[in-house]
Amino acid sequence: MSKPSGKTIIAPSKSGSLGMGEHVDEDPEAALHAAILQAALDCIVIIDSDGVIVEFNEAAENTFGHRREDVLGQPMAELIIPEALRGAHDAGFEKYLSTGQHAVLGKRIEVPALHASGRELLVELAITPVHLTDQTYFTAYLRDITERKADEEELKRSRQRYRDLFERSGDAIFIHTLEGEIVDANKRAEELTGWDRKALIGTHLSRLHPESDQAKCKAAIEAVQSAGEARLEVRFIHRSGVQIPTEVNSRSVDTDDRTLVHGVVRDVSARAATVAELRTAKAEAERASAAKTEFLANMSHEMRTPLNGVIGPLGLIAREGLSENTAQMIDLAERSAESLLTLIDDVLDISHIESGQVDLVEEVYSPNDLLGQVREIFSNSAADKGIALDVASLPKDLRLLGDPGRVRQILFNLVGNAIKFTDQGGVVLEADLADENGSSIVRFHTIDTGIGIAEDVLPKLFSRFEQGLAAPSSVSEGVGLGLAITRELVELMGGKITAMSQLGAGSRFSVTLPANVQNSAQSNAGKTSQPLQHLHGRILLAEDSETNAAVVASMLAKLGLEPEIVCDGAAAVQAVESDAYDLIIMDVGMPVMDGLEASRLIRSTGHATPIIALTAHALPENREQTRAAGMNGFLTKPIRLKDLSRELEKWLPRAEAAHHAVLSAAHIDEQWNGDVAGHAFVLRIFVGELQKRLDRIAEHLQAGELAKLQHEAHAVKGGASNIGAEALAHAASALEQASLGSGPDGLIDRLVADVKQCSAAFVEAAEKSLAQSEGRGG
Q: Dihedral angle at the C-alpha atoms of 619, 625, 631, 637, nearest 10 degrees?
C-alpha cells in the first residue's frame, strides 16, 4: 500500500455525497476507501452536522430497503429512525453540536430502526464523529441483529422453561460432574437432603450417602462414564440423619465446555414401606394357610363330639312334657346348635364344595319362620352392641320348596357379618317375593351402617380366607370362609349374590333365590293384633297418598288410636303451629313441601314432638337423612302393624297400663310351675341388685353414656321379665329401645323416671310377696 498523499480523502461532491465512488480513478487511495465502504458487511451511513445523509453503502441498501441515490441528501432521522425515537435523536444531536458531549458516541448500543416497508428492525449501532476543516460528519455503523435477538430470546425462554421444569419437578435433580461434584440442584433436592442449594453446590455426592452405599455409588458413576447412563437404588442421608431410600436414574449430557451428569432421584419410602407390608402380609397369609390346614385336620374330632353331646340331650329334653315357654327356649337352643354344626360341617367339607359334591335337600318350609329364627338368634347380639336389628317378615302361610338349612345358613352368615362389623346404627334384613323373567324369586337384602368395605376389596370379598382384607384385625374373627361358602351355596341353588359398599358408610348384600312356591298352609291371616291400650295421644299423619293414609289410619285404629291427616309437609307445619300433638308420622316424599323440609321447619321453631319418618327407601343414607332433618323414628313401606306398634311404643306417652302387673301371680304359676320358693329365691336376688342398677342408670344418664345405659336397661328388663315384674320389664324395654337411637329432648329422662317409678312399685310388691312367702314357710 502506498503512503497517504496527505490529502483529505473525504470531500463533498457536487451531488452532495462525500465523493466515495465518484472519479476514484483520479485518486487510487480514495478508490480503495470507496471499495472498502461498499464491500463492508455492516451498514455504514454517514451524515453531516445537519443530519443529512452523505453516504449510504450497499449493506445499508440491503438492510433498510432504500437505494443509495434516493437517500443521499435526505434527513436520516426521517428514513431509518422510528418516529417515537426521533425526538430523543434530535435532542442528542443538538446537544453534541453545542457541547461536544453525547451519551452514545463511541459505544455499541441496540436500538430499533425503520425499514423502507415500515417494519421495525433491531440493530446494533456505533457512531463515530469525523471532524474535517470546518465540517463535522458522523459515521454510523449498523448491524441487523433482529434474527439474532429472536434466537437469543427463544434460547432464554427455553432455558427458563427448563429451569421451571427443573425446579418444579416432583423428583430431586442433581447436576454433577463425571467425578461426582454437584454443580446444581433443584428445590426437591434441598427438601430431600435438608441442605440449601448453595450448600449443595461444590459438595461431592459421596457425602450424601451412607458408607454402606459408597461402593454402589462409585460403580454407578463409572457406568455413566462408560455407558452414559446408570440406574441404582441408594439411600440419601438427610441433614437430620434420617436415611431415605431412593431410586436414581443418571444420564450424561454434553455441554459447551464439559460433560455433566443429570441425576433424577425419586423418594421411594412409601413404596419400600408397601413392599415390606406386602412381605409381612404374605408371610402372615402363609402362616394362616398352614394354620387353616391344621385347623381343618383337627376340627372334626374336637368339635363334632361335644356338639353331638349338646344336640342329643336337647332332643331328649324337648320330648318331655314341658311348658310352652320352656319348650320354645329348648327349640331355640336346638336350632342354634344345629346351625353351628352345619357351619362346622361346611368348613370341614370345603373340599366337597370345591368339587361340587354338596347335596341339597328339598323340603317344604316357611321362609317367614326362617326370618323369625334370625330375629331370635341375633336380637341379643345386636342389643349387646347397642345397635338396632330390623328383620322383615313374609306372609306366614307362604311355603317354598327347597333346602331350609342352607337358606338359614345364608341368612345367618349375612346377618352375623353385618352385626359383627357394625358398631353404630343398625342392621336391616329385608325380604320379598318378586317375578323375574316369568319365574318367582325370593330376595333377601342385608343393609348395615357398619365400617364398609374398600372398593379394591369388593372383587375379592367372596374369595376364601379373604376376611382380613375387608376389616381391621380387631373385628376380623373366624377363618374367613363365611362369604365364600355363602356364594357357593347361593349359586348351587341357582341364585346370585351381590355386594355394594362404601368404606365408612356401610354395606348392602343382596341374595336372589328361585322361589318354588307351594300350596299355602292354613292361613293365620284372620288373627288380628289387640289394641295396645297402654298407648294414647294425639297423632298427626302427613301422607299425600290417600291409599297409604287409609292403610296407616286403619293400623292406628287397630291400636286404639285415631290420627289427624294432612296431605303435604306445609300443611303439617301449619298444623303443628296451631295445635299440640304427641306424635307425627311424616311421609318423606310429598308435594308442595317434602317431609324432610317440614321436619326441619318444625324443629327450627322449637317443637320437640317425636316425628316418625315414613318412606319407601330403606338404605342407611336414607335413614341418616331423616335423622339429620330432626326425625326420630323410621318406617319403611310397606308398613307392618308390628313395626308401627314398635315405633309407637318408643315415642308415644304411656297411660296407666292396668294389664301390666307390678308382680304377676300368674307368672309364678305359668313360668315357675307353682314353685313359690324358687321364685322367692330369685326375687330376693333381683330386689337386692335392682337399686345398684338404678344408680348406674342415673350415673350413665348424667354422663351421657347411652350405650352403658342401654346395657343396664337390658339387664333390668331381663330380670324383671324372669320374675314376672311386667310393668317394670315394659318400662325398662322402652328405655332400652330409646337409648339405641335419637329421640326428642327429654325422652330418655322421662323413661328413666318411668323405670324408677315402676321399680318403687315393684319393690313394695316384692317385699309383701317375700313376707307372705316367709310366713307360709314358717
A: -30
Q: Per DSSP, what are the bridge partners of residue 53?
A: 47
- Spatial strand order of the sheet with 182-185 comes to 182-185, 172-177, 259-267, 243-254, 229-237
Question: Which residues have C-beta within 8 Å of that of residue 13, sequence separation ≥ 6?
Answer: 19, 22
pTM above 0.85, yes or no: no
- DSSP helix/strand/coil, 214: helix
Other CB atoms within a 10 A radius of the CB of residue 321 amount to 5
Taking residue 774's Cβ as centre, other Cβ atoms within 10 Å add up to 10
Cα–Cα distance, 239 to 61 (Å, whole number):
65
What's the per-residue H, E or C state across 613-624? EEECCCCHHHHH
pLDDT digits (tens, 9 = 90+) for 84-106: 888 888 888 888 877 877 777 77
Q: What is the pLDDT of residue 7?
A: 34
Strand partners, 55: 46
The 10s digit of each residue's pLDDT in 558-591 is: 777 889 999 999 999 999 998 888 899 999 888 8
Q: Tell me which amino acid residue 331 is.
A: D
Is the CB of residue 689 less than 8 Å from the CB of residue 762?
A: no
Distance CA 540, CA 117 (A): 91
Cβ neighbours of residue 775 closer than 8 Å, sequence gap 6 or more: none
Cα gap 378→124, rounded to integer Å: 94
Pull the grid cell for residue 160: 427458563
> CA 603 → CA 608, 630, 653, distances in Å?
7, 7, 20
CA 141/CA 126 separation, integer angstroms: 5
> H-helix or E-strand containing 443?
strand 439-448
Of 548, 544, 566, the C-alpha closest to 556 is 548
Q: Count of H helices and E strands in the chain? A: 27, 23
H/E element holding 389?
strand 388-391
Which pLDDT score, from 0 to 100, does residue 479 have? 40
| Other CB atoms within 10 Å distance of the CB of residue 751 | 24
Per DSSP, the three-state class of 553 is helix
Q: List, in order of start, the domains of the chain with CATH numbers.
A: 24-149 (3.30.450.20), 169-267 (3.30.450.20), 349-518 (3.30.565.10), 539-651 (3.40.50.2300), 665-777 (1.20.120)
Instruction: State the sign of the Cα–Cα–Cα–Cα dihedral 483, 484, 486, 491.
Output: positive
Question: Residues 123, 144: contact at Cβ < 8 Å?
Answer: yes
Residue 321 φ/ψ region, left for φ over 0, alpha for ψ in the -120 to 50 degree band, beta for the rest: beta
Question: Residue 234: beta bridge partners?
Answer: 246
Nearest to 681 by CA among 694, 668, 695, 666: 668
* All residues at 6 or more sequence positions from 28 whose CB lies less than 8 Å from its CB, including other chains: 2
Cα distance between residue 371 and residue 378, in whole Å: 11
Question: 608: how many CB neighbours lie within 10 A of its CB?
Answer: 14
3-state secondary structure string across 339-370: HHHHHHHHHHCHHHHHCCCCCCCCEEECHHHH
H-helix or E-strand containing 248? strand 243-254
